């Protein structure tokens, strides 16, 4: 029988230890306010908070009485450095991405001007000869534009270095954007 009492003492000791650890964990959580409860305020701070709330309400009323400011027109806020590209005689841009993705050559072209319509025609050239021509529309962005994108099956293209020539046409203006890609 003495053996049996030792087993119970060990069990009671383990339960007591678990209760102590649980109490410490709960105390830490409460102290760090991790249960999501808002901390209680002192009576002294409450009167000051009421005054602050009243000041904020007064400020909101004053703001409501002020006439609304008109936002700047799109033409008033420059979206570029240097000369305004929208006033240029020709269109310009850059081939921002040209690489093989899976079975396709994917090409993305950014246009410096804000255009709401038009076309981008890409010529893929190898050794001075046009290998493939494809046309895409133009998509407008906030202050610039982009070609709708080109996705060309690699199986129809020769291997090696290729020149990319993108002709952009919109609103009576045109421009040529060039680049290279290796397949």
Question: Count the helices. How many?
Answer: 2
CATH domain fold name of the domain at 91-182: Immunoglobulin-like
User: Into which percent range does the helicity of residues fall?
Assistant: 25-40%
Average of the residue pLDDT scores? 79
**Name given to the CATH homologous superfamily of the domain at 91-182:** Immunoglobulins
- Beta-strand level of the residues, as a percent range? 25-35%
Largest sheet: 8 strands, antiparallel
| Number of strand elements | 8
Radius of gyration: 35 Å
Enumerate the spans where pLDDT stays under 50 for 5 or more consecutive residues: 42-47, 70-76
Reading the helices and strands in chain order gives HHEEEEEEEE
Question: What do these coordinates show?
Answer:
The protein is of the alpha+beta class and 183 residues long. Among the domains are: 1-35; 91-182, Immunoglobulin-like, CATH 2.60.40. The protein has 2 helices and 8 strands, in the order H-H-E-E-E-E-E-E-E-E. Strand 7 (161-170) and strand 8 form a beta hairpin. Residues 42-47 and 70-76 have low confidence and may be disordered.
Short description:
The chain is α+β, with helices and mostly antiparallel strands. Among the domains are: 1-35; 91-182, Immunoglobulin-like. Helix content is 29%, strand content 35%.
What characteristics describe this protein?
183 residues; alpha+beta; Immunoglobulin-like; 2 helices
How do the strands and helices of this protein lay out in sequence?
Blueprint: H1 2-31, H2 43-65, E1 93-101, E2 104-111, E3 119-126, E4 129-140, E5 145-147, E6 150-153, E7 161-170, E8 173-182
Antiparallel strand pairs: 1-2, 2-5, 2-6, 3-4, 3-7, 4-5, 7-8
């Amino acid at each position: 029988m003495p053996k049996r009492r030792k087993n119970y003492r060990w069990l009671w000791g383990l339960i007591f230890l678990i209760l102590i650890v649980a109490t410490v964990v709960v105390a830490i959580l409460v102290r760090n306010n991790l249960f999501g409860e808002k901390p209680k305020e002192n009576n002294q701070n409450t009167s000051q908070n009421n005054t602050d709330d009243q000041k904020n309400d007064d400020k909101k009323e004053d703001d409501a009485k002020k006439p609304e400011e008109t936002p700047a027109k799109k033409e008033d806020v420059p979206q570029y450095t240097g000369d305004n590209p929208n006033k240029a005689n020709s269109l310009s841009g850059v081939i921002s991405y040209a690489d093989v993705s899976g079975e396709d050559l994917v090409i993305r072209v950014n246009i410096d001007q804000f255009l709401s319509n038009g076309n981008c025609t890409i010529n893929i050239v190898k050794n001075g000869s046009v290998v493939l021509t494809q046309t895409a529309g133009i998509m407008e962005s906030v202050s610039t534009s982009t070609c709708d994108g080109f996705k060309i099956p690699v199986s129809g293209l020769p291997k090696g270095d290729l020149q990319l020539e993108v002709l952009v046409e919109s609103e009576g203006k045109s421009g040529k954007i060039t680049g290279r890609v290796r397949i």
